[in-house]
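call fold(seq) -> tokens
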Amino acid sequence: MKDSTLKEHRLGTLSRAATITVMAIALLVSFVIIKPSAPKGIILLTGPEGSAYHEIGMRLADGLRSRGLEAEVRVTDGGFANIEHLAAGAPDAVAFAPSNIENVVDESVETDHLESLGSIAWEPLWIFYRAEHEITEIPELEGLKVSTGTRDTVVDFVAMKILRANDVLDGVVVVNSDDQTPASVTKSLIEGEIDAAFATGTTASPWIRELLASDGISAFSLERAAAYEARFPGSASITIPRGVVDLGNDLPSRDLILLSSTTNLVALDDLYPALVPLLLDAVAQTRDRQRFTTDPERFPNGENTSLPIALAAKRFYDHGETGLGRFLPYNVTRWINHLGFVVLPLLTVVFILLKIVPMGLKIWGGIRLMGMIKELEAVEKAHAAGVDPTELLSRLDELDRKTAAIFIPRSMVHDYIDDRQFLHDMRERVSGSADQRGV
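ret:
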């Protein structure tokens, strides 16, 4: 018994040490090797430097960083390039694109796995021209040099559709290239290298403000905007009020009716859901406070999108931001989620596995005791049948030696003692029979 108790004590100490070691290894694996499923940061696919997309992206990135999410602003060629990049597979990325992107993107680009997170700003289409041309209708652009922006961008595509719809595309000298930027187009228009230019941007865009303030440059007011709105799904007509840019200098000098889409945030349908409310709340906190249209602005919203709205975005528009994200930085909630979804379940599994070991020992001890009982029952039956006591005593001595050294879990000690007592009682009975026979 003393040896058995000592073995049990040693095994108990070993079990506790093994438990602590396995738990420590599980924690190390959970926090060092297995990374949180939530990404550390996000990539914002914007547009050329100086574009409205890039400016909004810079402000949005600052808002996200203040919430604990790393944000990389990536300069691109614009909406088309952004969608092509996403469609090719861009995890942890969100793209800026116009609301009508699905209607204008190339058919070879697969958009089935893309979703919109909603509209975040107006994206008006401006047409600036040199004032000496006194243009009042699109057909009057015929014969002039007109910039449609960077080749194969959304602006280029929409500008071509407008010119084509007015039957003047063949008569216009289209100026577009792969290296055009808002700054280069502005410079070319002011210096007279081109006669007119299509572009997108808000009144907060530096180059829009520069063109509105430039002598000899006028902004076209699209009087038939409602007709264009009907012709181009995903577009809306908006009014830029007189003086909204600069009241002192009366810029613009008249109300301007523009055709506008909205800037959408677009992502793959497997974007980590917890990023969505963070993005949309950052939009709400960092959007321009200046109203530049006569229409109500309630951005972000789930309106004016051609792609399906993401489920996480719908929840945000219906209920706002919920959960711990309302109170804690993202880099904290990221690890809390990891704790809840990875660490605790892993520790639970480890704990259960460690509990199986004592259970297995108990089962093993029970089997040993059962073997002992069966042997004693066999000896008892043999004794009753008159078998030679000497043989039975030899069997009992062997059983005594074997069972004295076995390990028995603490929970089964009482059963073990009872069985050992039965063995000693059996030996006394067999010995008494031997004495009677004079053996």
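Residues 41-327 form a domain with the D-Maltodextrin-Binding Protein; domain 2 fold (CATH 3.40.190.10).
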